């Protein structure tokens, strides 16, 4: 509760320094903030100029612009005092990966180790492996939104994950791989313990101060990303962020089938397991109706495929929602419960 107390007293001091001691005495430090706070503070009522300032200080989210590059949501970050670079806001992975030259090398934080991260496809069928060094760095989103020093992965080189990708030139370079998304790096904001790919070890958003670390709203229609508690009302939620279970119906009149799924903002047009389709691995025809539900049968979203917007049918057993789950409505990713998270579909 101390950050709340500090925010309240700072806001009150800006209006009337005499309110600070009154607020200190009106809080029950053995529990929560006392009910009817304004009634407990002498000279402060609901119509006073201090009341709105106190309310804003007690609970305030923070937003940053979001740019859509085709199906890819991008935000700008600065790592360790380096330049602002566009990164892919990716719920399907965990951990911030950026090229080594996009960081201020003269002001590096603590060295934490090295490793190999995987991207693309699914954890069992990735496209590219990335070798990186890990340092503790602050991440600046602009608008005064800065994390405490947190693990950041600095890419050194990359190579294809499997022989089937050896002749795909973009899989030999992290820059080329992410360049197709319009990004310089990957902001993995999923829960790794829940099955998100990428190096981890955590989402850098969990190092934001106070309530800003609770979760993030991706609003592709509104072109912004918002940190903090869910600011909107939701009509449905599913356990897990990004890995969950959904029911999906492919083709008008076909029954919904239970399938493991990744709710992946960086998944492009998504993927569909061939074993739930009557046509096997054949591409879906334009005009195919796809409806996605919770396991209890509540409709989350639906759309009709086109020649330019259709999930890739493959032999993987996991469905990837791709951008459709995000461009049809705002989606909020919560980091509670820890390591698993919850995905909320907002109005």
Describe the fold and architecture.
The protein has helices at residues 2-15, 19-26, 37-40, 50-58, 174-179, 324-327, and strands at 62-65, 67-69, 72-79, 85-90, 94-99, 111-119, 128-137, 139-140, 150-160, 185-189, 215-219, 224-227, 234-239, 243-250, 257-262, 271-273, 289-293, 299-304, 312-314, 319-320, 331-334, 342-346. With 347 residues, the chain is mainly beta. The longest helix has 14 residues, at 2-15.
Q: What is Rg?
A: 23 Å
Order of helices and strands: HHHHEEEEEEEEEHEEEEEEEEEEEHEE
Q: Mean pLDDT, nearest integer? A: 82
Helix content: 10-25%
DSSP strand tally: 22
Structural class: mainly beta
Task: Quickly describe the structure.
The protein is mainly beta. It has six helices and 22 strands.
Q: Characteristics of this structure?
A:
mainly beta, 9-stranded mixed beta sheet, disordered N terminus, 6-stranded antiparallel beta sheet, 347 residues
Per-chain topology:
Layout: H1 2-15, H2 19-26, H3 37-40, H4 50-58, E1 62-65, E2 67-69, E3 72-79, E4 85-90, E5 94-99, E6 111-119, E7 128-137, E8 139-140, E9 150-160, H5 174-179, E10 185-189, E11 215-219, E12 224-227, E13 234-239, E14 243-250, E15 257-262, E16 271-273, E17 289-293, E18 299-304, E19 312-314, E20 319-320, H6 324-327, E21 331-334, E22 342-346
Parallel strand pairs: 4-10, 5-9, 15-20, 16-19
Antiparallel strand pairs: 1-12, 2-3, 3-4, 3-8, 5-10, 6-7, 7-9, 11-12, 11-21, 13-22, 14-15, 14-17, 17-18, 21-22
Helix pairs in contact: 1-2, 1-4
